[in-house]
Design goal:
The complex is a heterodimer of chains A (171) and B (426).
Chain A lengths: L2 H46 L6 H22 L8 H5 L2 H36 L2 E3 L2 E2 H5 L1 H28 L1
Antiparallel strand pairs in A: 1-2
Chain B lengths: L1 H13 L4 H15 L6 H7 L9 H14 L2 H13 L5 H17 L4 H17 L3 H11 L10 H12 L9 H25 L12 H10 L5 H12 L4 H19 L8 H31 L2 H12 L3 H18 L2 H18 L4 H15 L7 H10 L3 H24 L2 H4 L4
Helix pairs in contact in B: 1-2, 2-14, 3-14, 4-13, 4-14, 5-6, 5-11, 6-7, 6-8, 6-10, 7-8, 7-19, 8-19, 8-20, 9-17, 9-18, 10-18, 10-20, 12-13, 14-17, 15-17, 16-18, 16-20, 17-18, 18-20, 19-20
Classes of the chains: A mainly alpha (171), B mainly alpha (426).
């Protein structure tokens, strides 16, 4: 391995760590904002007799964002709920074959959802109707294609990793 | 063609593909055959934000994760030990009550066994309880409390019920009211069983010490208001459930990070990502299965299913019995969240057709799922307990089977005595 490719590899791995940490901190930021908005809203309503009308909608949109970013993290950590009957009883080799198939299947499904939801968001962009305050609907919805695109990419990487492991085992 | 598609889906599910992907694939196939544009999937997913209870899921889950990461379980055990430990079989009662409270807050994710079981199991055997009884008690208690507020599965059931517009207008505190008596009843039945199972053993009790009670109270002074606030908040009618959840999350965060200082500030991202990846997984299968359910309703599947069941099952009592058997098996194979979002939309219309109250069905559903957690051979908590207590899975089967029968009897009573569930609502 040349010096150059080593540098590239360490740069890539640093970039990856950085992105993963950004993902984590975004999640922290959104969750804490949600909690604060909801609590402040209660105080405003009960002690000052008014509230921000769109605060509740904002919190719900943020829940969707938290959920989808959380789902991206769950993909990264391979923690999505599944039926693990085979994983519990099969041999390692069978497991990497079934794992590869399952990962490829999920990557394809997520890619299709990403494509069609991007199309939907594009339609909403042209329409331009607001979700609350001055925030347009398409912006709130844009997390759907984004999250499914990332999940698709992550499942594809998991699938490729399975293939590499398999070829090493058979070699 | 449709049949091949369904078989393919089941195969991928068995291969270990995530449940959300299988549901999405099924929905898209359905849309494809019905000539519906696939971008409708995004519309359906976005509809999840129309759920008023939705925000309570991340808030309560986060609070639960914070509690299980700090030393709340130790304090909870010490306090209940001080209050109940002097009574005959006091420690068994302590186990039941602490586990029920802890599970209600943290969900039956196995964390009760990992966090509390590790303290309670050695305490039980050292006090003189038989090993088999102790093992069974701790494992069974790992899913006790699913029916008590603010249990996440209970909230999820309410969300699904509301999405389906079945049961008319209802207040969300009604879901918690419905679960309250059946949940307490299960604790009561297990207490009776603890007395019966140990009738030939004399188990030493320690004397009541008001000094220890005071000291334990002082130690957990910041956490005692928590269940009281959740109860008063949910049933008081001033705050919405999701608002109670937000205040709970903020309070728990402040208490554990700044007062007890058991969670360091720099550890927060880890707790947040762990809890939110779980919430993300749940909301994802909730959103996708809502899309799937809408497709099924359009294709008139629940109606056809009801006609089919009606042709084979004559009366309500037989239906309920078959339902119990079905749910027990379901609970042992499928995790509680997938089971809720996939199966409730199918059986809720049927149950209502037989004259069963939607909230009663919810309680029956969760009560069965609770048993499913430790039903051999694949109940999840059996594996967690086997790993935690370093006992073979066969030992756990043997230890849990008596408890399983006791709780099955309790579930039958809950099933055939609807007033127990409904009396607080009416």
């Amino acid at each position: 391995m040349s010096m150059n490719s080593e540098n590239t590899a360490s740069l890539l791995s640093r970039l990856h760590t950085g992105l993963v940490q950004t993902e984590n901190w975004i999640l922290v930021f959104i969750l804490f904002s949600m909690i604060l908005i909801a609590v402040v809203q209660i105080f405003l309503r009960n002690f000052f007799g008014f509230g921000v009308i769109w605060a509740e909608t904002l919190v719900r949109v943020l829940v969707l964002w938290t959920a989808l970013i959380g789902a991206m993290v769950a993909t990264r950590q391979a923690k999505h709920i599944n039926i693990d009957l085979i994983a519990r009883y099969a041999s390692d080799k069978v497991k990497s074959v079934t794992g590869a198939l399952a990962n490829l299947f999920t990557a394809i499904v997520c890619a299709i959802v990403a494509y069609y939801s991007a199309y939907f968001v594009a339609l909403e962009y042209e329409d331009g109707s607001p979700a609350f305050a001055n925030v347009p609907n398409w912006l709130c919805e844009s997390i759907i294609p984004f999250a499914f695109f990332i999940m698709s990419a992550r499942y594809l990487i998991a699938f490729l990793t399975n293939l590499v492991q398999l070829s090493r085992k058979t070699a | 063609m449709a049949l091949i598609a369904v078989i393919l889906l089941v195969v991928f599910l068995l291969l270990g593909a995530p449940i959300f992907a299988a549901i999405l694939a099924a929905t898209m196939l359905g849309f494809f055959y019905a000539d519906i544009d696939l971008s409708a999937i995004a519309v359906e997913l976005y509809r999840v934000i129309d759920t008023p209870l939705l925000a309570s899921l991340p808030f309560f889950t986060f609070a639960g994760y914070i509690l299980s990461e700090s030393q709340t379980s130790q304090r909870l055990m010490r306090l209940s030990q001080a209050i109940f430990g002097w009574a005959p079989n006091g420690l068994a009662i302590v186990v039941l009550i602490t586990c029920a409270i802890f599970t209600a807050f943290t969900g039956a994710s196995g964390v009760t066994i990992l966090a509390l079981g590790a303290l309670l199991y050695p305490a039980l055997t050292q006090t003189g309880y038989q090993q088999k009884f102790s093992l069974g008690l701790v494992t069974t208690s790992g899913s006790l409390g699913l029916l008590l507020p603010p249990s996440i599965p209970l909230i999820l059931y309410g969300i699904i019920m509301q999405q389906m517009h079945i049961g008319g207008e209802f207040d969300f505190e009604q879901i918690f009211l419905a679960g309250l008596l059946p949940g307490l009843f299960m604790i009561f039945v297990l207490t009776l069983w603890a007395f019966w199972a140990n009738r030939h053993h004399r188990i030493p009790t320690h004397t009541f010490s008001s000094k220890e009670v005071l000291s334990a109270l002082r130690e957990s002074i910041w956490e005692i208001p928590l269940p009281i606030f959740v109860f008063a908040g949910i049933f008081g009618g001033i705050l919405a459930v999701s608002e109670v959840a937000a205040v709970t999350a903020l309070y728990v965060l402040i208490v554990e990070v700044f007062i007890y200082k058991e969670i360091k500030f720099r550890d927060l991202p880890k707790v947040v990502t762990e809890s939110m990846s779980m919430v993300g997984g749940i909301i994802l299968i909730l959103g996708t299965s809502m899309a799937f359910t809408n497709y099924l309703i359009d294709a008139e599947v629940p109606g056809a299913l009801f006609e089919w069941v009606k042709a084979h099952v004559d009366d309500k009592l037989t239906f309920l019995l078959l339902l119990n058997v079905f749910l027990l098996i379901l609970g042992a194979v499928l995790d509680i969240f997938s089971a809720l979002v996939i199966v409730v939309p199918l059986i809720l219309p049927i149950a209502v057709g037989y004259g069963i109250h939607p909230l009663h069905l919810g309680v029956i559903f969760l009560a069965n799922m609770q048993i499913g957690y430790f039903t051999p051979p694949v109940g999840m908590n059996l594996f967690i307990a086997s790993y935690r207590f370093e006992k073979s899975i066969i030992e756990l089967y043997q230890a849990c089977i008596p408890f399983m029968f006791v709780l099955m009897a309790a579930v039958l009573i809950i099933t055939y005595w609807p007033q127990l569930t409904l009396v607080l609502i009416q």
